[in-house]
Specification:
single chain; 210 residues; mainly alpha; 6 helices
């Protein structure tokens, strides 16, 4: 390659326009956030597993007969969140097809699923607190670490869901009102929502079932 070719090529790279991994900067930043947040949730669940292993028989029964929580409620919560993720996938597909009406419809359905999930989580918290649970106390004389991790992990996830609802609302309103549909914005919102759903699957499996 000649010196002329090199000097003509270098300024173009430094002036921008070339995206790493051929992705928009919004999507790249979202992926970086997801990786970092996944490590944080993974650390919480690992610490929970370590504490549970050390507690032995002092750990409470979580589900089933005599358990602290309702299997039916948690199963419904999981189903609702997974269904909302499917709705979000439909919204992304509609946005890529430049179908404004379908994009708005599926985004609002995703939003509705998130609201239902969050409402059930509030009910679960209210029920547990009504039993006497506090971040430093688990009902029934069980290991206090359970309640501490319950409020930490489910509360942290619930905060993510609440943020996701705000993101979905903004995304739906932008898709409805702006002159041009922005498929990239819908896809980035979808990435966040799919991540929130996937994290809940791990919480459900590691925290409630195991």
């Amino acid at each position: 390659m000649s010196l002329t070719a090199q000097t003509s090529f270098t300024p173009e790279r430094w002036q921008g326009g070339l995206s790493p991994y051929n992705q928009t900067w919004q999507k790249l930043m979202m992926w970086m956030f997801i990786v970092g947040d996944a490590l944080l949730f993974g650390g919480f669940l690992a610490a929970y597993g370590f504490t549970r292993h050390g507690a032995g028989d002092a750990w409470p029964v979580v589900l089933g007969e005599g358990g602290l929580f309702s299997t039916g409620l948690l199963t419904t919560m999981t189903f609702v969140l997974i269904t909302s993720s499917a709705f979000m996938a439909c919204a992304v597909s509609a946005a890529k097809a430049n179908n404004r009406a379908e994009t708005v419809k599926w985004t609002f359905l995703t939003l509705a699923g998130g609201v239902v999930f969050l409402g059930m989580q509030v009910y679960e918290w209210s029920h547990f607190i009504g039993q006497g649970a506090r971040p430093w106390f688990t009902p029934g004389g069980a290991d206090p670490g359970f309640a501490a991790y319950f409020f930490l992990i489910t509360g942290f996830h619930g905060t993510h869901v609440l943020i996701g609802l705000i993101v979905l609302l903004v995304t739906a309103l932008n898709a409805k009102r702006r002159p041009e549909l922005n498929p990239n914005g819908v896809e980035v919102a979808g990435l966040y929502w799919h991540f929130v759903d996937l994290v809940w699957v791990f919480i459900f499996g590691c925290f409630y079932l195991l």
